[in-house]
Design goal:
Number of domains: 2
Shape: globular
CATH architecture of the largest domain: Alpha-Beta Complex
CATH class of the largest domain: Alpha Beta
Order of helices and strands: EHEHEHEEHEEEEEEHHH
Number of strands: 11
Length: 254
């Protein structure tokens, strides 16, 4: 018997990893794929694995996910990206949460696959809120990136993780960092947030130390060092681009 869960995924040219994603959720009742115009085999792969495919012009991350959530019919919803894969342990945890019916949302750990493999099991993993009761969840469309559902009720934090292949290469991660930092800086600028000179100067070394030492990426060898540098660079880019937005505004007012 399939789990009463709607899996929803927003896609654009995700053929590289989408098959792994869809195979991992075949025990769920419903799979919703909202595609914004893929030119590869994304949609045919989705249909092959029984997904309901909807076409929607790109609205932005939060609005696109809100639309995908609105297409779901089950009481529980699981938000995945097209480069992610759930594990058997993840699936078992979902079953337990549904049967116990104590919590309205669950925050799982994210296992980033970087340069071919996971980081050390002792390196701290990020966490994401991905599983929740559909009718209690919504996305804040003022967030241009790093969108996450806001869910009413009691949240559970668990140790089970899902695999994330989106950080597979340095090139891929650099491209994402460039795109996401622009969106994050724009979001802050739109909300009238000022840049900070001390933060601009210190954010890179402080963030590197946080990732490399506090989050124990040094235990992952050279891959941990490289990933810490890239994450620190992303933190720097967000603040630098916010500064850039403010400087452009000053020039326009002259």
């Amino acid at each position: 018997m399939k789990l009463p869960v709607s899996v929803f995924i927003i896609t654009l040219n995700e053929e590289l990893h989408l098959e792994k994603t869809l195979k991992s959720v075949q025990n769920c009742f419903e799979i919703i794929v909202v595609d914004s115009g893929s030119s590869d085999n994304t949609c045919s792969i989705a249909k092959k694995y029984g997904a309901k495919v909807f076409h929607k012009e790109w609205l932005g991350y939060a609005k696109q996910k809100q639309f995908a959530l609105s297409c779901c019919t089950q009481n529980w919803a699981l938000n995945l990206d097209g480069d992610e894969e759930i594990t058997p342990e993840f699936l078992t945890r979902m079953k337990t949460v549904i049967s116990e019916d104590i919590y309205t949302s669950v925050r799982f750990k994210r296992n980033d696959i970087f340069i071919g493999k996971s980081l050390s099991k002792w390196s701290k993993k990020p966490n994401n809120l991905r599983f929740y009761k559909r009718e209690l969840a919504h996305f804040d469309d003022s967030r241009l990136v790093h969108e996450s559902a806001y869910v009413k009720g009691k949240e559970l934090y668990v140790s089970e993780s899902f695999k994330h292949y989106g950080y597979g290469t340095i090139s891929c991660l650099n491209e994402k960092n460039n795109t996401y930092s622009t969106l994050k800086a724009k979001e802050k600028f739109t909300k009238n947030k000022a840049y900070s000179t001390p933060k601009l100067i210190l954010v890179f070394p402080l963030f590197f130390c946080k990732e490399y030492f506090l989050h124990r990426k040094f235990l992952s060898g050279m891959r941990g060092f490289i990933l810490s540098v890239l994450k620190a660079h992303y933190a720097f880019l967000k603040e630098a681009k916010l500064y850039e937005y403010h400087e452009h505004e000053k020039l326009q007012k002259k």
